């Protein structure tokens, strides 16, 4: 199973500052600890210097990541705050029939409500839920 980790990178920062990306390792580590056979796709690991990309590289990377999300078996989106890029990943996955699971306090956000099959309020509740599941497919059941 291929799982794509979407999540906030720049949020509403006006410059090239990134939000702490430690959540990506926490999600990936928890998934792999539970199901070692998973393939986890992390856009930040693929493109750690992406905030410095020129316009052409940024555009190419954005659309390539949307394709990766659409070709995954599951998208897990971490949204402590709104994220335009993550919203695009969620929508693209949804349109492709890929289940979306969110980790977000934004429970009333329309994008979250419309695209997510399952919502977790925070990382702790998401990670705790993993121990109760027989397979990662149950995340979106």
Give a written overview of the molecule.
It is a single chain. With 141 residues, the chain is of the alpha/beta class. It has one domain (2-140): Rossmann fold (3-Layer(aba) Sandwich). 42% of the residues lie in helices and 16% in strands. It contains six helices and five strands; from the N terminus they run βαβααβαβαβα. It has helices at 22-34, 43-46, 55-70, 84-95, 110-115, 123-130; strands spanning 2-7, 39-41, 74-78, 100-103, 116-120. Strands 2-1-3-4-5 form a five-stranded parallel β-sheet, with helices on both faces. The longest helix has 16 residues, at 55-70.
CATH class reads Alpha Beta
- State the separation between the terminal residues, measured CA to CA: 15 Å
Strand order of the largest sheet: 2-1-3-4-5
Structural class call reads alpha/beta
DSSP helical segment count: 6
* CATH topology call: Rossmann fold
Q: Taking all residues together, what is the mean pLDDT?
A: 94
The value of Rg in angstroms is 14 Å
Share of β-strand residues: 15-25%
The helix fraction, in percent, is 40-55%
Low-confidence stretches: none
Instruction: Count structural domains.
Output: 1
- CATH architecture tag: 3-Layer(aba) Sandwich
Order of helices and strands: EHEHHEHEHEH
Largest sheet: number of strands, sense, barrel closure: 5 strands, parallel
Secondary-structure blueprint of this entry?
Elements: E1 2-7, H1 22-34, E2 39-41, H2 43-46, H3 55-70, E3 74-78, H4 84-95, E4 100-103, H5 110-115, E5 116-120, H6 123-130
Parallel strand pairs: 1-2, 1-3, 3-4, 4-5
